[in-house]
């Protein structure tokens, strides 16, 4: 009997052990029986007690909330340690509990609450009520966060992006929550806006191409070209961050939720009055705002700009960059050449405000005027000479010298030489001025040959004796009398019978203005004299000899 009762008692004892002894590695319920030395002593049943640091009962940044008599769940790591106490952990219990809860939230795509409590490489650590998650730096906010201090220890919602219980990895995002709420907010704000509305906003950010304006939870882009009617080089010229501005909603894209804003649309368009204020051919003062390869932009008033094309910049500087003629911010006089209201373009002229230098030259230097200038260029067809008004005149090869061939005469000139010339022609339309150097002293040949006609008898001076004839000079003009023209008598056609310095009467046989030569002959003079004598004193038929006739003629001359 006694044996039987002992067996029953043992069975009951074993049963009670199995019932009351918690499984190691599981979460068990316990009761706080004392708090001492920063630890809570917890009874987990069956005469088993364990110790847990008070900080394990605290949320990040908060004081522990624990008191004697509280029932808590702890994780039983070991039933007994060297001191005969149970090894328990509140933190591990919370972690197990948290993982169960988080896995469910992840599966259901629900938000979870947590607090950022530490900074690690590439991001932050987040306490999700017992489980530690990683928050990448890029997932903290919609825009990069420089200082995450204000966010530390703050309870807030997070979205689980990824979790792996086996490895103990959880990745969360705060940005996804913000974007979602922002999208809802944007949709709500955009729903209240219509194109054409005038709204108030605060300048949030400024870039090179414009400014972002906060319209109360939603940003709109105010492009630099819509800030003012005038040219704006950088938005910071007009706006500053934090400034409150009135803007007009130009466009709303319902799909992308992008809003385009404008400021100039709330001001009067200066182009409405352009045609009336700037009639064609009127001259106005303007300021150079921009210089390009093809011209310069000139602002006539804020919002009204015109282009001075490079071809309309200068009468004389044809192939020069506009930057060599005008500079940015310079004030200039311009003439309105054309207005295109539809394209909002004004064509302006700079050179038209100055007189055409070829016209001025034609007025002040009529043909025949003597001018002086520097040789600017030497070409195969003549010289270019700098003239007043920054223009050039050309001396053609044929106008260099009376006596020399042009190709030879041009060798006498060098770039930079200062020369005199006579204006022979001014063509304003073709912007061409013809000059002559040889005409400087007048036309000596024309002057000398003015009183000389074909058949005239003139006296010349012998300047040279050659085999083929003699060279003579008349009034500074050289001529050559060939051997056959030296005498009627063949025996007398000897050049050596003349000496340099002899004065000889000759008959003019030809006046060639083109080649500027006189044809002279002694033989022709002798024949003409004989003919005249015969006519005066009889003919050879009357029996008188030629000697008698000439003798009588000479006698008559003596008397």
From TrEMBL:
Cellular component, GO annotation: ribosome
CDD domains: S1_RPS1_repeat_ec1_hs1, S1_RPS1_repeat_ec2_hs2, S1_RPS1_repeat_ec3, S1_RPS1_repeat_ec6
One family name in Pfam for this protein: S1
Keyword Ribosomal protein assigned: yes
Entry keyword set: Repeat, Ribonucleoprotein, Ribosomal protein, RNA-binding
Source organism superkingdom: Bacteria
Domain S1 motif: 25-91, 109-175, 196-264, 281-351, 368-438, 455-523
InterPro entries named in the record: NA-bd_OB-fold, Ribos_protein_bS1-like, Ribosomal_bS1, Ribosomal_protein_S1-like, S1_domain
Similarity comment: Belongs to the bacterial ribosomal protein bS1 family.
Function, as annotated: Binds mRNA; thus facilitating recognition of the initiation point. It is needed to translate mRNA with a short Shine-Dalgarno (SD) purine-rich sequence.
NCBIfam families listed in its UniProt record: PRK06299.1-2, PRK06299.1-5, rpsA
Protein name, UniProt field: 30S ribosomal protein S1
Taxonomic lineage of the native organism: Bacteria, Pseudomonadati, Pseudomonadota, Alphaproteobacteria, Rhodobacterales
Gene name of this polypeptide: rpsA
